[in-house]
Amino acid sequence: MNIFRLAGDMSHLLSVILLLLKIRTTKSCAGISLKTQELYVVVFLARYLNLFTRYYSFYNTVMKLVFIATSVCIVWYMRFHKVVKQTYNKDLDTFRHYVVIPPCFLLALLVHHEFTVMEVLWTFSLYLEAVAILPQLILLQRTRNIDNLTGNYIFLLGAYRALYLLNWIYRFFMEKAQARWISWISGLVQTALYADFFYYYIKSWKNNEKLKLPA
Amino acid sequence: NPKLPQKDEL
After folding, report:
1. Predicted ipTM?
2. Does the keyword Endoplasmic reticulum apply (chain A) (predicted)?
């Protein structure tokens, strides 16, 4: 474990906790994309299958369970909670997210480290996570006023994989870890998708004004 | 096997 990976995991954990707090306290999921949340459930289920087959550490196991539980909980709130589901921007969250699943799976069948079920699903989860934020970013452009909690949630979510990029650089040089091209390229694509959000988020933070993405 | 990257990350 290195400081970059720990910071990345904490940023990721904080983002999901922030989102859950926003939904629970405001009883609203306005501005949040259900499509992105559902893609994240698929990402975590496909990636954390080794939860039952390999024990790395208490930390690793607990964090996997937390990410699976929180992502399922958020989808439950947005789909079934009687008050929260009324606040879902159904008409704005129109990205057909099931469209991205088959290409990611097909790519995982073609490009992977090893052709086994676990490895292909793990690779699929990396490709899917790289594009999972798209519905949320598109919804943001359609949302007039983005509340602070949502902005912070997306910033932390983007920051986590950016920190993982630093973690991979650290591991490659310091631990002489072998090249992880699939993780590296997926992580780069994922972080690049946040580029313009980061720009407008930091700009709004510097000028102390409301976060606004150009349509 | 050693060639597979460690899955110790989240």
Report:
1. 0.84
2. yes
